[in-house]
Design brief:
By secondary structure, the chain is mainly beta. The protein contains 3 helices and 43 strands. A hairpin with a 2-residue loop joins β25 and β26 (about 300). The longest helix has 21 residues, at about 1-20. It starts with a helix and ends with a helix.
């Protein structure tokens, strides 16, 4: 009997030992306070283990004396290196940096990044929740870069990143910058504000700058951007070669008036699919820009994008702007676009192909409600011709054109325009084999007296403007 009890006791002890060894350690909460020096807080981050929480108690954390970086260089006031952590702020916790100290534009500058994240093995997860960032060059900088201004290359960095319920104010460059993430990116319920549109980008999400684009964001991962307010940036949300993107219920705007330069949402290439829905874009130069084409060593397709149920108002140059010879098979439906510029502006502009535009409401005034065009570059041999574009049941009754509602120039062919039956929409056609139904040929004799440029000249202006927008991102 004694032998039996001894065996049973040993067995239970072994089971308990196995349970203790195999059970995950409980996450630890590390409290930090405004009275702590920045170096002490960094030491806390360095001591934390995977899964731990760094909790910023209420108060103002002064990081104004932190080391500075050039805008493409790695580094930050606080650094998270190869750890899975949650950085959580109590109500009233504010992290303050300092104005940039060099560089007069949003492109070239030196300043402080609040947080820098480095995980080149891409096997860690980082989350931010409830923090306030004020007066930084970059708020959250999840970038592993070579720091070369002439040829900046980003490398794989981090697995999953979540940023929610944070506030960014007085940001000089990018509110949130992410490059080379290998897992899911979730950005929700944040307030991100720049400095009266001299700031660069609210959200910068980039997988482009690596020859071949072979190792960025696996196709089964997700980018989710919802319920954010983004104000006063040259670009609200900018993507380069992302996958599986959802942008929903965001508010993107600027305070300046008039505003010709700022872009609300831009896709610089897309690997597979994106949905842009139920966003409000206000007082911008461009609402949504889609670019697909050749750019030096990179060929970026932009296909599979759905732009639906968005409200665009006070737009000065282009509402929906589709650029490049590889922008195709996208769906633009049920959007409301209100334009404000009487001259070189379009609610919808395209030089792509096989895109579908249905049930959009185009209002305000501009050069044309819809312009289809293209370009040729004799130096590179590249070209783009709007063709096989399909328009149906788009309402233009509230749009005052200069000179007509649909303008198709000599770069176009095989497009289809089907208007709403009750409307008297006018079109001009200088292309080949374009098809029209329920729209009416524009007569040059009825040209308004304020029209001052020809169709071909406007086409060239639009081409140059579109190319410039892509380059400045």
């Amino acid at each position: 009997m004694r032998s039996y009890h001894r065996v049973l006791f040993c067995f239970m002890a072994l089971v308990l030992l196995i349970f203790v060894v195999s059970s995950p350690a409980y996450a630890k909460k590390w409290n930090v306070y405004p009275t702590m020096a920045r170096g002490v807080i960094q030491a806390v981050i360095d001591a934390a283990k995977d899964g731990d929480v760094i909790y910023f108690n209420p108060g103002t954390y002064d990081f104004s004396t932190a080391p500075t970086n050039r805008n493409y260089e790695n580094g930050g006031a606080l650094q998270i290196v190869d750890k899975s952590l949650t950085i959580k702020g109590a109500p009233g916790s504010i992290i303050v940096g300092a104005p940039v100290i060099a560089g007069s534009t949003s492109i070239w500058m030196t300043g402080i990044n609040a947080f820098w994240i480095l995980n080149s093995d891409a096997d860690k997860d980082v989350a931010f929740d409830g923090l306030t960032f004020k007066t930084f060059m970059n708020g959250i900088f999840a970038v592993n870069s070579n720091g070369n201004r002439n040829y900046n290359v980003g490398y794989p960095n981090l697995r999953n990143l979540q940023i929610k319920s944070c506030t960014f104010t007085d940001i000089y460059r990018n509110g949130i910058a992410v490059e080379g993430e290998q897992g899911n990116l979730t950005i929700t319920d944040n307030n991100i504000e720049g400095l009266s549109t001299i700031s660069r980008l609210g959200l910068y999400i980039d997988w482009l700058n690596e020859p071949g684009n072979t190792q960025w964001q696996p196709d089964n991962t997700l980018v989710t951007i919802k319920n954010n307010s983004i104000q006063n940036f040259l670009g609200g949300i900018i993507f380069q070669q992302a996958s599986n993107v959802e942008i929903k219920n965001n508010n993107i705007s600027t305070d300046s008036n008039p505003n010709y330069d700022c872009i609300g949402i831009s896709f610089f290439g897309l690997k597979n699919s994106a949905k842009v829905a139920d966003n409000v874009l206000f007082n911008l130069g461009q609402g949504v820009q889609i670019w697909g084409g050749n750019n030096g060593p990179f060929a970026c397709m932009a296909t599979g994008i759905t732009v639906k149920n968005n409200d665009l108002s006070n737009i000065w140059n282009y509402g929906i702007n589709v650029l490049g010879d590889l922008a195709y098979s996208n769906s633009i439906t049920n959007n409301t676009i209100q334009m404000l510029s009487p001259e070189q502006s379009n609610a919808i502009y395209s030089e792509g192909f096989n895109n579908e535009y249905k049930n959009n409401i185009l209002g305000g005034y501009g050069w044309a409600a819809v312009c289809l065009s293209g370009w040729t570059d004799p130096d590179s041999g590249l070209s783009a011709f709007a063709h096989n574009e399909f328009f149906k049941d788009n309402s233009i009754a509230g749009f005052t054109p200069n000179p007509c509602h649909y303008a198709l120039d000599f770069y176009t062919h095989d497009n289809t325009i089907i208007g709403l039956k009750p409307e008297q929409a006018l079109y001009s056609d200088n292309g080949i084999n374009n098809n029209f139904k329920r729209v009416y040929l524009y007569s040059p004799q009825s040209t308004p007296t304020h029209m001052s440029v020809s169709s071909s000249k406007v086409s060239n202006i639009i081409k140059k403007g579109g190319t410039k927008k892509v380059e400045t991102l």
